[in-house]
Design brief:
Blueprint: H1 2-40, H2 46-52, H3 57-68, H4 75-91, H5 96-108, H6 112-125, H7 130-142, H8 146-159, H9 163-174, H10 178-189, H11 195-205, H12 209-221, H13 228-240, H14 244-254, E1 281-282, E2 289-295, E3 298-305, E4 311-318, E5 323-332, E6 343-348, E7 354-359, E8 369-376, E9 383-389, E10 398-409
Antiparallel strand pairs: 1-4, 2-3, 3-10, 4-9, 5-8, 5-10, 6-7, 6-9
């Protein structure tokens, strides 16, 4: 009997321990799950995340950041955010978000030096927090510290995926200031990972093509390699904005030896991945096709069009002074009726006025040579030299090659 009583007592004790351990495990599992869920929700729903895990400094800091980031922040809200940031720092002294929230609170209070110390502490903890870098940029702007501004731009753009969308437009507008532009050139000369993307952004999206041209000119003088599309975008942007002289100066820099008073690349020897409007521009619209091929003496233009189809084949923008000009060249492979041969036209870019036409006769005539003249009036500073295909009545359509073409002053 005594043995059974002892066994029964031991069984009750063991079951009690087991129940206690199971309860502890259940509580521990619950705490673990709520903490994990709270951490997952910290960015999407920081209020709920904080309710689930109020002792996690990262979550507490994010809750405070959510409050202080509200555009309709009230004094009571700011005090709440400040209290949460202080609590977060007690829970986790390495919380960058908490330090930045507290720094923002001090800045709003007008305690600039305290804000700088807090953001300096946040910088020492981590440079990857975009909000910290943005504050540092704004602080440098307030102090007129242009090198400091660019330093923090560089850090932000190196460390945050979201930074380019936010900072590129601001920096692109800021390069209109020569002092800022000079510092940007220095920064880009160090080949940061974001440099190429910014050059392309400025060239395509910059509000002022002259500022973009000045930036890229400064970089080229430092022997910095520019993205292949950047120069074309700047030149085309300058022309579109009416800055023909600036466009030519930049073009002459990237295409040494170019002469403004005549067309360029007469033998189609320059194979460009991204041509500018001042280079040969090909048309391929699904009907008329054209391509520049390598040849024994430079290159040649090959073109074709199906029967009864016409349209532009090739174009080059010109910035010719007023006066008389002669077009000459020679072809191969063109065999059409007189009414179906292709022709060159020179038009005014601004209003489409045509200054004449020069036919390209069948290549069997005069060894394929062709020529003619145009007169440019004083009121048209930008022109377009275009090769046009006339609709062909032959079964095979139009086909041929241009081996040479050049527009030069007539005298």
């Amino acid at each position: 009997m005594a043995g059974r009583a002892m066994w029964s007592h031991r069984s009750r004790l063991e079951w009690s321990l087991r129940v206690a351990l199971a309860g502890a495990a259940l509580i521990g599992g619950y705490v673990s799950v709520t903490q994990s869920l709270g951490y997952v929700l910290r960015n999407q729903d920081p209020v709920r995340a904080h309710a689930l895990s109020p002792r996690d400094g990262r979550i507490t800091a994010q809750y405070g950041n959510e409050i202080i980031s509200d555009p309709e922040l009230t004094p009571a809200d700011r005090q709440r955010a400040k209290a949460l940031a202080l609590r977060a720092l007690r829970q986790d002294p390495t919380s960058v978000t908490a330090a930045s929230v507290l720094g923002l609170s001090h800045q709003i209070d007008g305690k600039v030096e305290s804000a700088r110390r807090l953001f300096g502490y946040a910088q020492r903890l981590s440079r990857r927090e975009l909000q910290v870098q943005i504050w540092a940029i704004e602080d440098a702007v307030a102090r007129g510290d242009i090198p400091g501004i660019l330093k923090h731009y560089d850090i932000a753009l190196r460390t945050s995926r979201n930074a380019p969308d936010l900072l590129f437009p601001i920096l692109a507008a800021a390069i209109a200031d020569p002092d800022v532009r000079g510092e940007v050139v220095k920064t880009l000369s160090n080949a940061p990972a974001w440099g190429g993307a910014f050059m392309s952004y400025v060239a395509v999206n910059g509000a002022d093509p002259r500022s973009a041209a000045a930036l890229l000119t400064g970089l080229r003088r430092r022997s910095i390699t520019l993205p292949v599309d950047a120069s074309a975008s700047v030149i085309n942007g300058l022309i579109a904005a009416g800055f023909a002289d600036e466009a030519w100066r930049y073009y002459a820099m990237v295409r040494p030896g170019s002469v403004r008073r005549q067309s360029r690349d007469p033998r189609f020897s320059t194979m460009l991945e991204t041509p500018t409007l001042l280079d040969w521009t090909l048309f391929n619209d699904g009907n008329v096709t054209s391509s520049i091929q390598r040849g024994d003496n430079g290159g040649f233009l090959e073109f074709a069009a199906p029967p009864s189809v016409g349209g532009p084949i090739l174009r080059q923008m010109q910035l010719l002074p007023p006066g008389d000009y002669r077009l000459s060249g020679y072809s191969r492979g063109i065999e059409q009726t007189a009414s179906s041969v292709p022709y060159w036209t020179l038009t005014c870019q601004a209003d489409g006025r045509e200054f004449g036409r020069v036919d390209v006769p069948n290549s069997s005539q005069g060894a394929g040579a062709f020529g003619g003249t145009f007169r440019i009036p004083p009121d048209c500073p930008v022109q377009a030299l275009t090769l046009i295909a006339r609709p062909s009545g032959t079964m095979l359509g139009l086909a041929g090659e241009l081996r040479h073409v050049q527009l030069v002053p007539a005298r």
